Amino acid sequence: MVTNLRNDQAPLYIKVNDKDNTAIIVNEGGLRKGAVFPCGLVLAEGVPQGHKVALTDINEGEEVIRYGHVIGYAERTINRGTWINDTLIKMPAAPPLEKVPLSDKTPAPLEPLEGYTFQGYRNKDGTAGTKNILGITTSVQCVVGVLDYAVKRIKEELLPKYPNVDDVIPLHHHYGCGVAIHAPDAVIPIRTIQNLAKHPNFGGEALVVGLGCEKLVPDRIAPRENIISLQEQKGFKQMIHSIMEMAEERLIKLNSRVRETCPVSDLVIGLQCGGSDAFSGVTANPAVGYAADLFVRGGAAVLFSEVTEVRDAVHLLTPRAVNEEVGRSLIEEMKWYDSYLRRGEADRSANPSPGNKKGGLSNVVEKALGSVAKSGSSPISGVLAPGENARQKGLLFAATPASDFVCGTLQLAAGMNVQIFTTGRGTPYGLAAAPVMKVSTRNALQAQWPDLIDINAGRIASGEASIEEVGWEIFRMVLDIASGRKQTWADHWGLHNDLCLFNPAPVT
Amino acid sequence: MVTNLRNDQAPLYIKVNDKDNTAIIVNEGGLRKGAVFPCGLVLAEGVPQGHKVALTDINEGEEVIRYGHVIGYAERTINRGTWINDTLIKMPAAPPLEKVPLSDKTPAPLEPLEGYTFQGYRNKDGTAGTKNILGITTSVQCVVGVLDYAVKRIKEELLPKYPNVDDVIPLHHHYGCGVAIHAPDAVIPIRTIQNLAKHPNFGGEALVVGLGCEKLVPDRIAPRENIISLQEQKGFKQMIHSIMEMAEERLIKLNSRVRETCPVSDLVIGLQCGGSDAFSGVTANPAVGYAADLFVRGGAAVLFSEVTEVRDAVHLLTPRAVNEEVGRSLIEEMKWYDSYLRRGEADRSANPSPGNKKGGLSNVVEKALGSVAKSGSSPISGVLAPGENARQKGLLFAATPASDFVCGTLQLAAGMNVQIFTTGRGTPYGLAAAPVMKVSTRNALQAQWPDLIDINAGRIASGEASIEEVGWEIFRMVLDIASGRKQTWADHWGLHNDLCLFNPAPVT
Fold first, then answer.
1. Fewer Cβ neighbours under 10 Å: the N or C end of chain B?
2. Is pTM, for the whole model, over 0.80?
3. Looking at the structure, do residues B368 and B461 belong to the same domain, yes or no?
4. A319 by DSSP, 3-state: which?
5. Does A188 touch chain B (CB under 8 A)?
6. Hey, how many other C-beta atoms are within 10 angstroms of the C-beta on A122?
7. Cβ <8 Å between B405 and A429
8. A443-479 pLDDT, tens per residue?
9. What are φ and ψ of residue B263, in 5° steps?
10. CA-based nearest distance B341→chain A, Å
C-alpha cells in the first residue's frame, strides 16, 4: 500500500487501492513541476504535500477514485500528472439512506485478545475510572462564577490533603435555563448533562451546584444529597462554605480509592479526528483502526463518531452492522442529522474546513472515506444517539457532530475514559475529565510539535513503521495512560477545552 | 400605586393599575387564609409572597388583569380573595405581529439631563471604556487550553508590572469550526465574535489566538498584527512565548491610559432581568426604567432586550418607536424569533421558568408586562439584530434571547459597558468584560444575599423609598461603577460567567 522509499528527496506518493486513479504526495513541502516518480509519472505542475495527483488521464465527467471509492467526478479533463484540487472535482450525491444495504456483510467477530489489563479505579456501577476526579457539575450557567471561586479554594486548601485525588473540575455548560426545555430535541443536552455527572472518572461522587429557579431542576441530574442550591444559601460566603464542605466529604471518599487491575473490557475508548489532512486516511486513522480492533478483541467499548464525516461513507458502514436493527439505528441517526442540517439551511458541503482543504482533502466524501478508517474492521454492534451512555461493548457508533469539542463532550457523556485523537494539521485539544492522546498523521507535525503529539503515525508514510506496529503502540500507550503510568501531553500542560453541549433545540 | 404600610405584620398587597382585578401579596412568607386587608378583602386561602390574589369575583372565561392589561382568562370562576396560580389562568394569544400599531404614540423626547459625567477610558473610535482590560479572543474553541495556560502566566508574571491594567481575560466561545458557517443564521455568532473583540473595555488592543485550519478565519476578527496562529508555532512552548510577547506589547500600551472625564453619553447601558418574580415588575424594573430615562436624557445608549419576554407586550412597544421603520424592525426581530422557535418545535410557553412561577409569575404575558417596565418611557430610537453593535444613542431594543447568559454576551457585543441586572429569586451572575450591577426586587433577597446585591429596590414595596429615589440611586451608582470608584459585588468576588454565544445555525 505504501511506497517504501526512505530518501525524502525522491518523489514519493501513496496510492491506497488498486482501483485508485489518484495518489497523494508524501514529500515534505510538496514537489515541483517535472518531478519524476519511479513508475514514470511526471508532474505536470507543482503539487503540495498531501495533495492529490492524477495517475491516469481522467476525462470530463469520469470518476475520480481514492480508497477504491468514487470521491467525485472530473469537472473537466484532468491529464495524468495534474494536481487535483477541490475545484476540479464535482462532489457525488450522498448515498441515499433508503437504499443502503443493512447488515449484509457483517464481519465475523474478531478473535478474542486475552492477557491485557490496566490499573483503574473500580466503580460500584461496574465501570472503571482512568482518573480519580471530584467532578462538580451545574444545573445552569448562572452559578459558574460561584462554582469557579469555590473550586479555586478547594484546589488550594483541600485537594493537597487528599493526594489520591487527581483533580477537582467544574463542569461548565451553557444550558439549564433560557432554553426550550420541552422542545423535542431538548432530550439531547439534558441527557448529556445527566450522563456527564455519571462519568466513570468521577467515581459516583459528582456534586451538582444549582441556582434554584432554573428550568433544568437539579434533581434531574443527581440525588438530593449531592445538590447545593445557591438560592437556599445565606449570601456568597455561605455558598462557598457549603460547596467546600460537601466537596470535602467527597474528597475523603475519593481519596480512599486505589487503582486495581482491570480487564481491557472496562475501557470505553473514544476515537476522533480533528484538523484532518490527506494523510489522516492513510497513516493515523488506519493505525487507530488497527488499535480499535485490538480493543474490541479485548472486550472494550470503542466509540467512533462524527455523523457529518461518516455520512458520505455510510454505505460502507451499514453492511457491517451486527444486525438489521443496528443498521437501521445508524440510518435513523443520519436521517435525523440530514433533517437538522436542512432545518438550518445548511448541508454537508459545510465540511471540510479550509484547513482540511489546504491539507489536501477535496471534499467531505474523501474526508469520510479517510475518517471511517478509524473504525477498523469489527462488526458494528450498537448505535448511541447523541448524549447517550454506552451500555454495551464492541464497536459502537456514537452519533455526534464532527465538531471536535462537541464530539468530545458527547463521547464523555457516553462514558469514554480515554480518547484517541488523530490530527494532521495539529490541535492542542484536551479534556479535563478524561485523557486525550494525540496521534499525528505526518512526521512534520511531530517534528514541529514534539511537546504536544503523543504518537507519530507519520512514520507509516515514510516507511519507518507499519500500520500494525503503530496500532500496537497506540494500544499499549492507551493502557499506560489509562493506568496513570503515562501522562498525555495535553494533561502534562493542563490543556483542557470547554465542555461544549450539543443543543439542537432553541434557546428562549 | 403602592400601599405604603410600614408594619410587616399587617396584610399588604400591591395593585398596579386601577383596572386590575388582581394584586400581589407583599408580606414576607405570604399570608394565611382569613387575613383581612384594609380594604376589607379577606383571603379565601393562604397566598405566598409575590403571588396574586383576586380582588373581585372573576367568572369563568373573564379577563384576569394586571398592569392594566389582560394577562389571561379565568379557567373557572375565581372568587374574590382566591389565590390565582398559573393553573387558573388561560394564556391569551400573542399579539398578532401584522396588526400592532407602529409609531403612533411616540413619546416626546425627554428633557435633556446635563451635568453628569463619569471617569472613563477614551478610545480612538469614540467609545469609552469603564475598565481597562487586555482581551484575548479566539477564532475557535480548539485553542482555549493553550490560551488559558498563557493567560495564567500573563496574570502571574506580566500583569503586576502594569498596574493601570485591570485584568487580562480570555474570551472563550464554542464556535469557529464544526459549524455550518455558510448557513443564513451563522451571521449572528460571527458578528458577535467580531464585535466582542471591539468591546470598548479592550481599548482597541484585543488579540486573537487562532488555530490555523478553522472555518472562522482569524482575519475576520482582527487585523493580522493582532493574530497568533498556533499551527504556525514550533511547539507548545513557542505558542506560550508568542502569546505572552504579543500580550506584553499590548499591556504596555494599555498601561499608559488614564481615566478622563467623559459625558454620560459615552455609556452603553445594558438592562436585564433574571430570576424574576412578581415584584420585578413593580419594584426593581420600574426603578431601572426611571434610571434608563435618566441615561437617555443624558444622551447615553440604553439597551433593553430579551425577545421572548417582550414578545407578549410588543403592542405596548411598537407605538413608542421613533418612526415606522424602527417599529417595523422591532416586528421583524419578533417574527424571526417566532419562526426560530417554531422550527425547533418550541413556543413561548417555554418561558417562564419554574422559579419564576414559584415567585408568582403565572405566564409569559405577566412576565413581559413586568419586563418592559425596565425600558422606561423614552421613544424607542433603534433596533439591533442579535450580535450587532450599537451605533446610535437613545433607547435601543437589542434583540436577544431572554437567557441571562446569552443576553449578556450579546449586549457585550453591542458595546454595553455597564449592565443593570434586576433579580427577584437571586442570581450571582457577572461578566468579566463589563461590570454587572445587581438590583433586588425584594427586601428579603437583599437581607439573604447582602454580599451579592448592589441595590435593593424592595424598599419600594415596603414603602421605604420611591421608584424615583431608587432610580436616581441606580443612576448615581452606575456612574460610580463606570468610573472605577465603586466595585460591584460580582467584581469584588470575581464572579464571572462564561460568554455564551447565540448560534441558531447548525453545528456540523
1. N
2. yes
3. yes
4. helix
5. no
6. 18
7. no
8. 999 999 999 999 999 999 999 999 999 999 999 999 9
9. -70, 155
10. 6
